What we know:
By secondary structure, the protein is mostly helical. The chain has 2 domains: 4-88, Flavocytochrome B2, Chain A, domain 1, CATH 3.10.120.10; 166-368, no CATH class. The chain contains 15 helices and 5 strands. It has helices spanning 15-19, 49-54, 61-64, 74-80, 112-119, 128-133, 139-146, 174-195, 201-204, 219-248, 258-273, 285-302, 305-331, 336-350, 363-368, and strands at residues 11-13, 22-23, 26-31, 34-37, 84-88. Strands 1-5-4-3-2 form a 5-stranded mixed sheet. Strand 2 and strand 3 (26-31) form a beta hairpin. Helix 10 crosses helix 13 (305-331) and helix 12 runs antiparallel to helix 13. The protein is elongated, with a radius of gyration of 27 Å.
Amino acid sequence: xxxxxxxxxxxxxxxxxxxxxxxxxxxxxxxxxxxxxxxxxxxxxxxxxxxxxxxxxxxxxxxxxxxxxxxxxxxxxxxxxxxxxxxxxxxxxxxxxxxxxxxxxxxxxxxxxxxxxxxxxxxxxxxxxxxxxxxxxxxxxxxxxxxxxxxxxxxxxxxxxxxxxxxxxxxxxxxxxxxxxxxxxxxxxxxxxxxxxxxxxxxxxxxxxxxxxxxxxxxxxxxxxxxxxxxxxxxxxxxxxxxxxxxxxxxxxxxxxxxxxxxxxxxxxxxxxxxxxxxxxxxxxxxxxxxxxxxxxxxxxxxxxxxxxxxxxxxxxxxxxxxxxxxxxxxxxxxxxxxxxxxxxxxxxxxxxxxxxxxxxxxxxxxxxxxxxxxxx
Length: 377
């Protein structure tokens, strides 16, 4: 049997992916919604390889049925199955090319059955994660589909298990409840450490709190902390941009492997696939804890404790503003400047996901040349 074993025949390809395999060294064609790799068959084609190469990367339905071109026997159709490598996905553009950014945008709910039958992607009526893990799609087909937004009235399930499912959903108010107190504690600790560098977090983490351990506050400690806090706010804005662009949108640098596609879906793909899902708009606390750990360790490695804690307090406080702002950009009517940021962010989802990585500000998009034109009315 050919190298295209039965186990490989379930792959789902995008039309653009097939069209690129149009050379003698890699010859794909489509027929009746199926994808065939005829590279090895070229030397054996009875009519010569030129006829096949003329249709490389294209559909051969018409030519296969054209008796004036080349008569194909029933055996020829049966032989084709040896070279079948998968199916052609729907790949239809769900968001129209003339979509205009509008802060009053309200998408229609997706027809689940029609969407699944047409695109051979995720069945939104079933748990998502196991479908992504077992998916037959190529990486390119996954990326072409996950950036075409779908919409549900209720949050889709990630897991079938009622025990695991709650860990995948986060209400917006959980973020400030957890991270603002931590930012306030680190800010207080920073102020105290500017007056007493030997002070540690353990000195303040007593029960009941030992406020006498805090040295008296001075103008120097307050101004020093505030300067570090401001640096932390700036640091967060660049981290927001860098993480969004180079981690969450790693996209085309992903390995074409199921674990990589699944990780991409968990980190950010699900948000682009279901951008209006209210319970997946802010970062789960565990995910933010994992992401912030190397950066906070780096801050303590580079700076004295007082400066590091001051910078981290500013970054954490700004992170909360980022996540609350992100939720508002999707679901809240906003004043002028924020309404423009809402149009800008929605254009990232519905117009061009390869531009417009700033959420709280466009500043770094200006700096790094990734500005997105919103084409407002």
